[in-house]
Every structure is written in structure tokens, then in C-alpha cells.
User: Fold this.
Amino acid sequence: MTDTTAIERLNDVRSRMVHSAKLARRDANAITLIAISKTHDAAAIRPLIDAGQRDFGENRVQEAQGKWPDLITQHADIRLHLVGQLQSNKAADAIALFDVIHSIDRPSLATALAKAIAASGKRPAKKLECYIQVNIGDEPQKGGCALADLASLVDLCRTLDLPVVGLMCVPPADIEPAPFFALLAKLSDQHGLPELSMGMSGDYDTAIMLGATCVRVGSALFGARGMIYTK
Ligand SMILES: *Cc1c(COP(=O)(O)O)cnc(C)c1O
Assistant:
């Protein structure tokens, strides 16, 4: 991939975000674009950093540990987001590297994160933020907290003093995502968690219409994983 292509894709995604925000009468500056760089190496990531992109997301702690420490040393203002499922025994590693964790989905993980934060004192210069991931389509194979368990998980996170700011979801594939985004927005309202992490390459415009405050975009920026980018 040439640098020009990466920058064109970034500009394209940004302008679509601005367009969707305008249609929804929202301020585009209040919506964060998280570039999901999983499976892509530092050489693919650098052009986006050079073009000013600062929020990046990964779905595996170990993969992120391999490529991000150097990039972060070079650009201290990068914010790294963990968007994949997190094992409790990786909680300490996760908070050492990531600024935002989008995937709290069960009490044991909430407890492990709280312990890890207490033990580390978390880098004081950077503030950790967390999202609770909701299994919004009630799919058996999907990550995320069951709808029925959300209220108690929110309570637990607050009891543990976890810095939970919002809700995150990945709606069921291949069906219209709008009702799921709308439901997540309603839940975030009910629970007083204003940030909404929703929308990926195929549906971020819809997510923005329905209130997303951050969108997680991978293939539209980096090209399809394991496929040739066609657009
Ligand atoms: C991979 C991934 C994304 C980005 O998906 P694209 O369809 O490539 O934009 C967003 N969120 C999560 C949780 C992911 O795992």
C-alpha cells in the first residue's frame, strides 16, 4: 500500500463521518475515529500517524505489545484502544499498554482490571477509560455482557471505581444494524454512560446517525484483512 492510498482512505472515511454528522445535526468533532489496525504492521500504520490519526485500536494484547511500544515512544499523544475480548490474566498487561478498554463484559474481568489498576497506579499522565461491551443481539457465540446482566455489571464497575464512560457493541452480521445501535444508545442513556462505541467499516454512517461517539474502522482504512481492497 502506498502512503497516498492510506491518506486517501483516511480522508474518505473522515469526510463520510462529517457528512453523516451533518445529516444527524451533530458536531463531527465530537466523534472519534478509531483506526483498527489489527493484523497490520507498523509500516502500514505509520502513514496514518503521519497524516494526523491518533486513536488506534487492536483486538489482541499480545499482538499490540509487538508493534505499539515503539510507535508510542515516537508519538506520545497516541491513544491505544483495546476492542477485543480480554482474558482476566492479561488485565495488567492491557492497562500497561492501552488507554481505553472497550470490552469489559463480565464481573471477573471488571474485578481483575480494578486490581491491576490498583497495583499499577496507572500511568498518571494518561487517564484510563473503559467501556462495557454489550451482546446487543443476544448471540450465543458473541462477546459482550448479556442484556439481562448489564445493570448489575454497571453497578459492579461503579463499586470498583472503574472509569467506565460508555457502552460498546458489535451488532449481528448481515442484518440491518440500526435497531441494535438504537438499543445501545437507549441503554447508555438509561445507565448514564454517555459514550457510545459503535460502528465499523460497513455501518459507521448508520452508527453516527444513532449517536456513536466513537467509531471503530479497520478495513475501510487499511484494506480488507487477507483480501484485496475493493472500493
Ligand atoms: C476488527 C474490528 C473492528 C473493525 O472492523 P472493520 O469491519 O474492519 O472496520 C471493529 N470493532 C471490533 C471489535 C473489531 O474486532
Remarks:
- The beta strands are 32-36, 55-58, 79-82, 100-104, 129-133, 164-168, 195-197, 214-217.
- The chain has a mean pLDDT of 94.
- Residues 166 and 195 are 4 Å apart (CA to CA).
- The chain is about 40% helix and 15% strand.
